[in-house]
Amino acid sequence: MNSRLALDGRAVGVMVLLCLIWSLQQISLKAAAAHVSPMLMIGMRSAIAAVLVAALMRLRGQTLSPSPGNWRAGLVVGSLFALEFLLVAQAVRDTYAAHVVVFLYTAPVFAALGLHWKLPEERLHWLQWAGIGIAFAGIATAFFGSPAQSGALDTRHVLLGDFFALLAGAAWGATTVTVRCSRLSSAAPTETLLYQLVGAGGVLLVAAPLLGEARFDASPTAWAHLAFQTVVVSFASFLAWFWLLRRYLASRLGVFSFMTPVFGVVLGVLLLAEPLEPDFVAGALLVVAGILLVSGARGLLQVLSVIR
Q: Percentage of the chain with pLDDT > 70?
C-alpha cells in the first residue's frame, strides 16, 4: 500500500494500547527481577519471539533467507537492538522502572538528530530544534536532580542505571537511523523485526551467564512475565506497530510516543510503589514536551498555517 491514511479512531486506539504495553515492559522486568534476571528475560523473550516471527513468515510464504544486500544492515540493526536491551537490562537492575521508561524514550530525539545529519529530507525545523533543547534540558534536570531519600535503591546505583537507560535510548535512535538510511527501509517489516530479535536473543542469552545474570526461578510469576514479554511485547505489539506503519502516516503515529513515558511514571508509582522525585517529574515533563515538539512539529506547523 503506497498511500498512507490519516489517523482515525482505530489507529488512535491501537496506539494508546501499544504505548501502555511498551510502558509495562519495563514495569514487568522490574517486578519479575526477583524471579528472573532482566538480561535473561530479554534474551529468552527475544529468542522465542524470533521463532514465532519466523513461523509467521513461513505461514505467509515469506522466505527466511535475508534479502539480497540486506544482511549487512540487518547485522548492524541486530547488534544495535542487542546493545539497547543489554543496557536496558542493566538499567532495570540499578534504577527505577519509571526512570528507565523516560530515559529510553529519548530515542526519537537521538533519531531526529541522526536523520538530520544523514538525510536532506529529514532536516530539522527550528521548532524541532527547540524540542531537542527542551528534551535535553529535561534529561539534565531528571539526571542531575536530587534523588528521593526515601527510595529503596542506592543513589549511586540509580544514577548509573539512569545513564544506562539514556545510552539505550541513543542505541534505539541509532537503530531507527540505520533502518531509515539502508535498504531495510523498503524491506518487509517481519524481516527487519527478525534481525532485531535474533540479534538480541543471541547476544543476551550468551551475555547473561557470562555476567552472572542467568537467574531463573521457574515459578508461576516468572512464567507469567515471560509469556507477557514474549507474546504481547516482542511479538504482538511490534507486529501491530508495523501494521500501523504500513497503513498510516508515520509522522502522525510518532507523536503518540510521548504517552509511553507518561504511562511508565504513573504505573511505576501505582504498581511498584516507586518514589516520585520532584526533580525527576519536572525533567520527565520536559522530556515529554520535547518529544512532542520533535515528533509533532510538522503537524503543528500545518495547524498554525491554517489558523493564519
A: 90
